[in-house]
Structure formats: structure tokens, C-alpha cells
Amino acid sequence: MQKKEERMGGMKNIFAGRWGIIGAGIFIGILAPLLQKWGNPGNMGVCVACFERDIVGALGLHRAEVVQYLRPEIIGFVLGSLVAACLFREFRPRLGSAPIVRFVLGFFAMIGALVFLGCPWRAALRLAGGDGSAIVGLLGLGAGIWLGTLFLKGGYNLGRTQETRPAAGLLLPLFMLGLLALMFVFPAMPGEGQSGVLFYSLKGPGSMYAPVLVSLAAGLGIGFIAQRSRFCTMGAIRDFVLFRQTHLLGGFLALIVTALVVNLVVGQFHPGFAGQPIAHTMQVWNFAGMLLSGLAFCLAGGCPGRQLFMAGEGDGDAAIFVLGMMAGAAFSHNFSMASSPAGIGKYGMQGVVVGLLVCLLLGFTMRKKAA
């Protein structure tokens, strides 16, 4: 038993080290373009925000017919993280750190992401696919995270979490298992926009997907490795700005470089600004959308992928953030805020402005008072 624990501890150290985080970035950088090759949308092998939006559509919480599909990758992220956390005794049910604030941050993070048309993961993959607008989005993301670090330096704090019962930490993983069960009970049917209680896109990005078991396996693998390595795109930029640490940044850069190489090999690299898949060229709002998302991610303590991985570890506050993002996805499409390749939605500008004002308000007011 002792030798077994020593072996598990050694693996933990390998994943948590510099080469572990770089390996996680390489792993994601290989899988994401291949998922695109196998059927996922262009420059969207993996996009946490877009895929959560598709799940919300599959459940009928918005009726944008082109973005409705129960993405197995997201389910795999949570369940893969759960398996890793349980295997290495890191499943720690906890909650209680300003849950309503986290819900609101997730809500507006999603609005910003859908104005840009992608989360930080997709911004990196768009860049690796040759989309020049991704540069603008990444600059906005960096600016938003930098702004968030100013609040962190000024005492911004959402309070401490508290240990809770295992059932609370298992709620989001169980929800994901329920979604997986629904997908197998009500699978996509050729030419049918609805199968039982689930909705399926017949055109647009929602109709593009890799085989279910392949997507699920990829999600499980990413969830497992990301939980071990603490992979986080937001944290990579935040740690560099605050402490000049490059540990997490190495993983983020490894993802971009690896995805670029894979795209070149499989013929998916198409440089330019116009005509990129599921993207628009309204650069002011590409920047502003990711500015909002970056600020919200920083104030919440993790990028959308990291929030899923933490939820798999039993973090109920991260689960609340995920639910906030899903609510934001429904709201974005039901109230014409989400963008399309034609440009931003009718009320996308208002959504970004309100989101920035709310996040700034939270940044100024959720500060620990000096003793």
C-alpha cells in the first residue's frame, strides 16, 4: 500500500511540474485540431463557452437552431477531473465563497465570450488556425485579466470556502452523468431536429461534431490531465502579470504552438481575417467581449475550463460559476446578444457594457476591509 501511494505521489509531482503543464498543453493542442478534423466546427475543436452554449440549446433553454448539441467533451471534462481527484485523493467537497457573485460573473463571462465567439481556449485555437481576429481577442483577454489583477492587489476577495458533504460536491458531476444518459437515450436522428427531450441542429456549428465516443474519450482525457496539472488559461496570464511566473503560461503557449503544428500537418491552417469559420471582424467588439470575459474570469479565479475541472474536484462554487455561464448562454441567444459570422448581435453592445459595469462594481465592492 505504501509503495502504491508513493507511485501515485510521484505521478502527481510529474503532472504538477513545468513539464507536466507543458505536456497538458501539448495534449490539448493535439486533440483539439484532431477533433475538428473528425467533425467538430472550424477552429473549434474545443471551446468551453461555445460547447456549454450548445448544451443549453440541446436542452431547449434557447432556440437558436444552429447551436443545439449535447457536447460530450464538456461532460468528459467534469467526469475526467472527478476520476483524477478521487484517484489521487483530492476530491474535496467545498462551497460558500460568494456563490451569487460567482453566478453573476459566470453569466457575464459567457456574454462576453459569445460576443467574441469563443472562450480563451478557442481564442488560442483560432490563432493556431490562422484567424487574425484571435489576436485582438487575446489582447482583450489579457487586458481584462490585467484589470482584474488590479482588484486582486487592492484586496478583492470572495471569501473562504467551507468543507461540505460529498453529495454537494457531486451534484455537477451527477448532472453531467444525467446529460450523458439523455444523449444515449435520445440520440441524434438523421434529418430530425428533435429526439425525445433533446434538440439537435440540422445546420450550422451545432450540426458539426466528432463521433460521440471519441469526443467523450477526449474530454475525459483532457479533464484528467488538466486536473492533475492545474491547467488554466486565465491563470497563465494572471500569474505572469502578478508574479512574473511562467509555469502556467508554458502550458498555454504549448497548446497554441502544438495546435498550429497539427493544423499545418492536417491542412487546417488558413491565415487571414475575413472568412474565418464562425468568427466576425468587428474588432472593437472582439476586444471588448474578451475584455469582459477576462475580467470576469479573473474575478472568479479561473478560466471556464478550470471551473469545470474544479467542479469535478467537488468545488461547489466553481459549479455555480458553470451554471452562471449556462444561464448567460441562454440569455445571450434569447435576447439577441450573441454574435454570428455576420457580426455582433442586436443587443451585444449593451450586454458588454452592462457586464463591464457590473464586474467593475463587484471589483470595487468585494474587497476585504483593512484591519
Going across the biggest sheet, name each strand in turn: 1-2
Question: Stretches where pLDDT falls below 50 for ≥5 residues?
Answer: 9-13
Q: Strand tally, please?
A: 4
Order of helices and strands: HHHHEHHHEHHEEHHHHHHH
Q: Give the strand content.
A: under 5%
- Distance N terminus to C terminus? 48 Å
Count of DSSP helices?
Answer: 16
Rg for CA atoms:
19 Å
Tell me, rounded to a whole number, the average pLDDT: 95
Structural class: mainly alpha
Helix content range: 55-70%
**How would you characterize the largest beta sheet?**
2 strands, antiparallel
Please tell me what the overall shape is. Answer: globular
Describe the structure in your own words.
Helices cover 65% and strands 2% of the residues. By secondary structure, it is mostly helical. The protein has a two-stranded antiparallel ribbon. Strands 3-4 form a two-stranded antiparallel sheet. A hairpin with a 2-residue loop joins strand 3 and strand 4 (198-199). Helix 5 packs antiparallel against helix 16 and helix 6 (120-128) runs antiparallel to helix 7. The radius of gyration is 19 Å and the shape is globular. The relative contact order is 0.23.
What are the salient characteristics of this protein?
371 residues; two-stranded antiparallel ribbon; 16 helices; mainly alpha; two-stranded antiparallel sheet; 4 strands
